[in-house]
C-alpha cells in the first residue's frame, strides 16, 4: 500500500472508531485501540457482495476494487456494513448480480465490536472464536489479547485458508483450526471466553465443558423460524450455565449443521380448521418470530401460496420432528388455520404470543436462559405465572433426538 493509501486507511479507521463510539458499540479504550490498528481491507479478499432487490427477490451484486477503484474500495472497507464474502459455500467469479445464500461475511463492525465489549475479556483471558470467517474479528482479538490467547475455528477449509493468509499478512498469528466449531476445540481448552459468530439452535454441551468455571459464552440463538437473540451465559461448572438475552436485534447466519432442513413435498390442506387469532404476520415481527420459535422449536415456515389475484398468501408451518403442520389461509379480514399431526403448531404459537401479551409484552432482554446437562430452558419471569420453553435437543445433527418425518400427504 502506498504511503498515501496508508494515511487514508489510518484516517478511515479513526473515523470508524468515532462512529462506533457514537453509536454506543465501542465502549472501552482497548477495543478502540484494536479498531484503530486492524486493517479491515486486508480481510475482504478481492470481492464482496452488496444486497440488491431483483425482479424475483434478493440478488447479490459483486463489488471489486477493479470496478470501484482502490480509494473507494478502502472507503467501503471501513463502512459500518456487513460485507458478504461467500455465496452458497463457494467463492465465485460473478460479474453480475446473482442469486445465492450468503455463507460467509465480514460482520458489521458495530456488531463485532459491541459483542467483543459484551464478552468482557480481561488481560490474560483465553478465547475461542467459533466462525473465523474473514479473520477480521480474530485479528481484533489478537490485537487486544495477544496471539497466544486466541483460538479460532472455521468449518469451511477454503474460508479458513483465506483467513489464515489475511491474518498472517496483517501480522497476526492466532491458533487457527478447521473443523466443526460446534464441537469446540479441545486441544486448546479450557477457555475463559467462547464467542460465536454463527448462530446455534441450542448451545453445544462441548462449549460448556471447554469453558472454565466462571467463564463466559456469547452466542446468538436462532432457529428455523428465523427468531434470533444474542445471549450471554456464565458457566457455573458441571454442564451448567445461566444467562440472559441482550438488548438489540442481533442475527447471524446459522452454524452449518443448524440450518433449516429442506422440505420437498408439501402437505395437503386437510385437518382441523378454526378461525386463527393471529395471522402469519406475527412471524414478520422480531419478537413474534422469537416467541413462535420458542413455542415450535422444530418447525419452519415453508411456503407462501398466492391466489393469483394479488390477495394475501396462504402460509405453511411444518414441524420437522413430528410431521405436524398448520396452513394459514386468508379469509375476509382474518385468517383460518388448518392443523394436522400430533402437535397443534399454531395453537402452541398463539398460546405463547397471548401469554407474552398478557405479561405486557416484555422486551427480549428480560428473557433468561438456563442450561443443565439435561435441558436448556428459556424463561420469562413475569408477575403472574412464569413462562418457560425448552430449546431443541443437543447435538450437531439437525434433528438429533427426533426421527425426521415426511409430510403426511403429498400436495396435489
Ligand atoms: C458471519 S461469518 C464470520 C464473520 C467473522 N467473525 C468476520 O468478521 O469475518 C460466520 C462464519 O461461521 C462459519 N461457520 C458456520 N458454521 C460453522 C461451524 N459449525 N463451525 C465453525 N464455523 C462455522 C461460516 O463458514 C462463516 O465463515
Record keyword descriptors for this entry.
412 residues; alpha+beta; Rossmann fold; Double Stranded RNA Binding Domain; ten-stranded mixed beta sheet; 10 helices; disordered C terminus; binds S-adenosylmethionine
Would you summarize the structure shown here?
By secondary structure, the protein is of the alpha+beta class. The chain is built from ten helices and 19 strands. Helices cover 25% and strands 28% of the residues.
Molecular structure report:
The protein is α+β, with helices and mostly antiparallel strands. Among the domains are: 3-197, Rossmann fold; 272-357, Double Stranded RNA Binding Domain. It is 25% helix and 28% strand. The protein has helices at 3-22, 29-37, 65-68, 70-77, 109-119, 136-145, 157-169, 205-209, 286-295, 345-358, and strands spanning 48-54, 57-63, 83-87, 102-106, 127-130, 150-154, 175-178, 191-196, 211-222, 228-237, 240-245, 272-275, 299-305, 314-319, 325-331, 334-340, 368-371, 376-380, 387-390. The protein has a ten-stranded mixed beta sheet. Helix 1 runs antiparallel to helix 2. The longest helix is centred in the N-terminal third of the chain and has 20 residues, at 3-22. The N and C termini lie far apart (61 Å). Residues 396-412 have low confidence and may be disordered.
